[in-house]
């Protein structure tokens, strides 16, 4: 969703123009307006301050319009977040593992800490602690799909011969992105480029430099 300069800076110039035009007619415009309104209200008022009534008023639509697509405000926020994540968190392909991972982890850290979508994610994680059914939906809707995206640089590196076959992708992804989520959600420590680049350097040392030093 287009929600100001912070998100545009995180996701790139094409994101800022996302809602211009009317490719899908008034219905799609209304849907996008609802998603944007929900995110804006969450940032302004916090999770408990977001209501269906408030979203409808901010988006300029009737509540009945909202209920055609979603049952709860949490459903709206999750849809908004999933859309943002798919657009902003697909890793680049520079043809080389190191720049791919550095760019992706920097983007992930920015997305989680400086964008409205990151605020939505933190709120959804908090809500999921009290609703097991929603937690399962969040895992399948975002976490599983994001792990697939996070794996792309490693998979491409295996295909290029930069990494060995048989790599435990799940374990390596946990080592890469786990510390970022831990700082964002638990310790609130900074996750700047020095930190994320260090995670990449550690992986490269283990998987590439370490392999070179092994005896024949």
From TrEMBL:
<protein>
    <submittedName>
        <fullName>TetR/AcrR family transcriptional regulator</fullName>
    </submittedName>
</protein>
């Amino acid at each position: 969703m287009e929600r100001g300069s912070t998100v545009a800076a995180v996701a790139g110039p094409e994101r800022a123009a996302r809602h211009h035009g009317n490719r899908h007619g008034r219905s799609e415009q209304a849907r996008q307006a609802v998603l944007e309104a929900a995110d804006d209200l969450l940032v302004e008022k916090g999770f408990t301050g977001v209501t269906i009534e408030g979203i409808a008023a901010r988006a300029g639509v009737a509540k009945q319009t909202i209920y055609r697509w979603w049952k709860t405000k949490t459903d709206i926020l999750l849809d908004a977040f999933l859309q943002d994540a798919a657009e902003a968190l697909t890793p680049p392909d520079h043809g080389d593992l190191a720049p791919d991972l550095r760019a992706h982890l920097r983007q992930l850290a920015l997305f989680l800490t400086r964008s409205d979508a990151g605020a939505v994610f933190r709120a959804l994680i908090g809500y999921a602690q009290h609703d097991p059914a929603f937690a399962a939906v969040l895992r399948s809707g975002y976490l599983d799909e994001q792990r697939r995206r996070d794996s792309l640089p490693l998979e491409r590196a295996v295909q290029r011969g930069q990494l060995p076959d048989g790599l435990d992708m799940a374990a390596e992804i946990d080592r890469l992105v786990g510390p970022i989520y831990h700082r964002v959600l638990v310790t609130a420590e900074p996750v700047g480029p020095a930190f994320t680049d260090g995670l990449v350097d550690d992986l490269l040392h283990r998987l590439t430099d370490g392999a070179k030093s092994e005896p024949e």
